[in-house]
Amino acid sequence: MASIKILVPDMGDFKDVEVIEVLVKEGQQIKKNDSLITLESDKSSVEVPSTHEGVVDKINIKVGNKVNQGDLILYLKSESAAKETKATVNKDKKIKKKAEVKKQEIIKQKKIIQSAPTLKSGTKAASPKIRKFARELGANVIEIPGTQRGGRVSEEDVKNFVRSQVTVNDGKVQKKVHKEEYSHEDFGEIELKDIPRVKKLSGPQLVRSWTEIPHVTQHDEIDVTEMEQFRSSLYDYYSGELIKVTPLAFIAKALVSALKEFPNFNASIDPNQNKIIYKKYFHLGFAVDTPHGLMVPKIRDVDQMNIKQIGEELKKTSKLCRELKIDKKDFFGGSMTISSLGGIGGTFFTPIINPPEVAILGVGKSFDRLVKINNKIISRKILPISLSYDHRIIDGAEGARFCVYLGKCLGKDFAFKLAV
Ligand code: CAO
Q1: pTM confidence score
Q2: When you count CB atoms within 10 A of the terminal residue's CB, does the N or C end of the chain come out lower?
């Protein structure tokens, strides 16, 4: 079996082109024309095919290397190569022709061939279509934060990025230039750190929500005195042990009830068909504070759970998030989100809707308030809530009714019913 060298072919004007992907492994059996490596210049990327079939013996190239015509890619053990020695001259011509065709293809179409999911830093995974789309909008795909698996860039990421880079002045689109009058170090010592990965991923989604959705936030207060008494009196029927559930489990149950009563809150807008999608399931999102940043996993079919099960599911899911063991799919497919800061503190805030959902319920920390009832001053437990909703789908009156309904669900007449 002959050992032959596979070299980088003629790439025309392309010099010092970066290897962004090695597509074969040592010991791998490959066919003629199988792609060996992907090269990427600032204009395009191209896969280099094998000139022979055989077994990859030794790879001489790494991701990140800069290569030119004639550089050694790998050694290939090939039976067919031995037979073909005589025809080498013709072969060379064919290879050159093939490389020439590739070159023309690159120049003419500027077509970018899909790059690998694992890339060295400084390069980005994106399909040829997305790269082309980004280029057409004047964006460099390398600068765009990708929200897909492995940081892959989607069309939506490109749009969000471009939107974040421009302002519209008198109908003219202008590139945003963030220029501070002074730099931070002019005022003292500073430290530069990378934005954590989770925050980088959630950033474009938050910008999209903030800039695209007309938010209205309705604040309200719910008297949860009886609910709280009931919560602290929950015992396991068999073991007699106290059941520890936080108010959030009750709030989740009440929210499901409200979603059934107000289907507009369990909906999404389909911008392509200009329609409203009504969801028949009740998968609630919960904002979870983790050391890596905010995550919003979904708990599925909350309508089929009792308070205790919701409490357990909440603990399990938030643990998975904090240990970065949560499945990516669990961040999608929600009905509505609850963002509870009740365990930390504070009252009202303006939660940002998590698209494609159309509403989010913010929950603050409950507090005691003295109120006059039947001429008596008594202490009641008050829960502050802040409901943000998409005004394109939900009217103010409906938002207010939703809050009133939630108040009833968590109020003295209904809290007990929620537990079953
Ligand atoms: N009022 C008063 N006390 C509350 C409360 C409320 N609304 N909500 C929770 N508490 C209490 C709990 O009962 C618990 O008390 P004990 O320690 O005595 O049992 C304590 O506060 C801590 O609760 P918790 O926060 O651990 O649990 P939770 O079920 O309420 O919340 C979770 C779980 C995962 C949502 C929460 O841990 C978390 O990460 N919250 C932050 C969410 C966030 O960052 N939101 C902002 C997103 S930006 O829009």
Answers
A1: 0.65
A2: C
